Predict the structure.
Amino acid sequence: MNATDFPAGAPDATDDLDAAFPFDLPPLVEGDPVDVVILGAGVNGAGLFRDLCAQGVNCLIVDRGDFGGGASAAGSRLIEGGLAELEIGDLAGARQAASERNRLLKNAPHFVDMLPVVFPVFSWLGGLGAALATLLGTPTAPRQRGAILARLGLALHDRIAAAPVDTPRHQLLSRQAAGAAFPELASGIAAAGLYQDARITAPERLVYEMVKDGLDACPASRAANWTRLVSCFGGSLSFESEDSTDFAVRPTLVVNAAGPWIDEVNAALGAPEAQVAGRRQSHILLDHEALRRQLDGRVLRFEMAGDGRVLTAQDYLGRVLVGATDAPTDNPDEARCPDEDIAALLDALRTVLPDLEFTADQVVCTYARTVPATAPDEATGQTPRPGGPIPIIEADADRPFPILSLVGGRFTTYRQFAETATDTILQRLQRSRVQSTEHLAIGGGRNYPGNPLARSVWLAEASVATWLDEPRLETLLERYGTTALSIAHHICDHVDADRLPDSRSVSLREIDWIARNEDVVRLEDIVLRRLNLGVAGLFTSRDIEAIAIVAASALKWSPERRAAEIEAVTTLLRDTRRMRV
Ligand SMILES: Cc1cc2nc3c(=O)[nH]c(=O)nc-3n(C[C@H](O)[C@H](O)[C@H](O)COP(=O)(O)OP(=O)(O)OC[C@H]3O[C@@H](n4cnc5c(N)ncnc54)[C@H](O)[C@@H]3O)c2cc1C
């Protein structure tokens, strides 16, 4: 398409709304007072930013990429309520994971929900010896878990999980019952566990919403994506943003929340220290209707033959998301799923579902990332618990601020991790906590209609206010939570029938709203993070081109910039995500 070929309904460059400065905030100027600078806006940095802002602490959060574009965008999209911790005998960790999962169900109901998990086992006694060793203090998860161990683990999980009231308790299905419920499971199974746990549909948006919540709570705070740390000198940090604007701040305290890049950032701050031991983990997305039908809304939890690593397969927007492999790496930038990881995941599927066919052709998309695991302590050789005590590098003569590092917190427990970090920071700033985040709904989770009656009232009222029909509003509510109302208001001025050419559930006005209101810097921010369809590889090149046209108009990109953005996204999807676009 030419620059002038706007799809019908796409606002053109003369649209009366100005391309908004991110979050409509004035830009930072030299010497602005900043109490805390947070480097890295993944779930941990954004969670901390939100908590500190809720206490009125003036913060700057900076990411060299987009908000939520690091390891936080590459997980298995599960919010596990403690089973992984139980497997290594960490009862306190399991309780914490369960209560944080339950809080997320309440605070982010637009993206986090419960669903059944099926867990086939191939023996009765497997893993008992390893479990006994765990009870005696070996912190290693058992392999080849058998039915007795599954029964004990799931019973304990039910006890600690305190799941929402209508959640069914676990069952241990006999081989026949499991075969009836999941006919394609390998005939050699002994039994299957069936229990309930949670998943997150849009982790990228959740991270973004936390940043936005922080800014709403503390108008003096600032957030900057696609902004580089250029130097750290004499207590001053200098940054440069994508459009070459530079600014500097002198913080009282710095938080390194750079995930797998934590060691790199500490070195850039003049405080080299090995805190992270990275592991590359890969996921694949399959176009596999037979497996999707078999899953029927359930997660399949199964073991990788040989190493006992737990894998999951689940329906994700009509594709089947399978992961993750695990391999040590010292390269935090690894982001391409190698052939060997694809082969290993397909082999694992063949073992548990031998009658279904799995081929590399069915893999439509992949993602891989280095996970920020904690490095072993140099003195003791022990590996600290991820998301555990927060390492602090104290100020020195050349660097008048201390650095706190947030290593390894997960989606499930990010809030509690952020709370611990916030309390440490408040103490150092000699300030007090003014509110807890325990019951603070996130972004589009605020005023979310959580039961069928509230939902039908919400839809009816929104329909009257915006003139959109209820099925359309339902789609928007699913996608954005209650933020859908603002989007629907924006849509209703114009024609909602103008949609992306292939992803017909997304309208051009919807993209226009995102581009104007959600701090979009690059095209990939919309394609891969503000909307989750791109993660499942659902956008075609025609869709990407249409998104680029709308974004270019909203953000006043030149035709050259627009073409470069399309080229960059296409290369990213093709080379890194292995999509056939
Ligand atoms: C394969 C996989 C599966 C997982 N599954 C789950 C799961 O199912 N459930 C769960 O709870 N957890 C899961 N996790 C763990 C969880 O996703 C991560 O531990 C968590 O997202 C890490 O978040 P983070 O904020 O520490 O790091 P990141 O999300 O990586 O954020 C760090 C940010 O720092 C930025 N950055 C880097 N360098 C700089 C710099 N110089 N200046 C400024 N910014 C910088 C990066 O761009 C990035 O955005 C999984 C992780 C992976 C990879």
